[in-house]
Design a protein that fits this description.
The protein is of the alpha/beta class. The chain has a single domain, classed as Uracil-DNA glycosylase-like domain (Uracil-DNA Glycosylase, subunit E, 3-Layer(aba) Sandwich). It contains eight helices and eight strands, in the order αββααβββαβααββαα. Strands 1-3-2-6-8-7 form a six-stranded mixed beta sheet, with helices on both faces. A two-stranded antiparallel sheet has the order 4-5. It is globular and about 40 Å long. The termini are far apart. The N terminus is likely disordered. Keywords: 4Fe-4S, DNA damage, DNA repair, Hydrolase, Iron, Iron-sulfur, Metal-binding. It comes from Streptomyces graminofaciens. Pfam families: UDG. Belongs to the uracil-DNA glycosylase (UDG) superfamily. Type 4 (UDGa) family.
């Protein structure tokens, strides 16, 4: 029975290549069947950006536009993130961006054509975590920005809470590494777009990103 059809075996590990750089992992991820999300998604959306980036930004999962284009953060949330990062002094062209889950999970209300984002389950996040850890191991960033609760839990564990942990430099233990990257958690930009007080939520996102920018400046 394949991992995708066995609920007890949600795990992308068997699909990871034994060696190679980001390009090899990206090719392998295209055929990942580590959980059922691949069945309805258009394609795997792997991370993109500088292979030696000092900063990695991790979101939840691809959205509708990301799923169609095959690139992370190319939709409305991505445009808002780029704007906020620029205000915070972060060069997004020098960063690496990815998601905790590599396939778009969605529902179609009323059976229509419109695809609405649905949050991934913890077992789906756990299944995809080997890809995320591999990306971090290959890029070796100094700072990781967790955009939202799903990214935070994928990086720091199930006890993570955005409201409690955002805007602070948190340690990210990486087994076998002497120099550990730091994590700065903040809202996902899509949460800013949905916020009643969008102006305040956006200001908070910029402020949290400034923490990451300042930490990079001190390194």
């Amino acid at each position: 029975m394949s991992p995708a059809n066995d609920a007890r075996a949600y795990d992308a590990s068997p699909y990871l290549p034994s060696r190679g750089g980001l390009a090899a992992y990206r090719r392998a991820a295209a055929d990942c069947r580590g959980c059922p999300l691949y069945e309805n998604a258009t394609q795997t959306v792997f991370g993109e950006g500088a292979e030696s980036a000092r900063l990695v930004l991790v979101g939840e999962q691809p959205g509708d536009q990301e799923d169609k284009q095959g690139e992370p953060f190319v939709g409305p949330a991505g445009r808002l993130l780029r704007q906020a990062a620029e205000e915070a002094g972060i060069d997004m062209d020098a960063a690496y961006v990815t998601n905790a889950v590599k396939h778009f999970k969605f529902v179609r209300p009323g059976g229509g054509k419109r695809r609405i984002h649905k949050a991934p389950e913890l077992r789906e996040v756990a299944a995809c975590r080997p890809w995320l850890l591999a990306e971090l191991d290959l890029v070796r960033p100094e700072i990781v920005v967790a955009l939202g609760a799903t990214a935070g839990k994928a990086l720091l564990g199930s006890s993570f809470r955005v409201t409690k942990d955002r805007g602070a430099l948190l340690s990210l233990p990486v087994e076998g590494k002497d120099e550990q990257p730091y994590v700065v958690a903040t809202l996902h930009p899509s949460a800013v777009l949905r916020a009643d007080d969008r102006e305040g939520a956006y200001a908070g996102l910029v402020a949290d990103l400034e923490v990451a920018a300042e930490a990079l400046g001190r390194k």
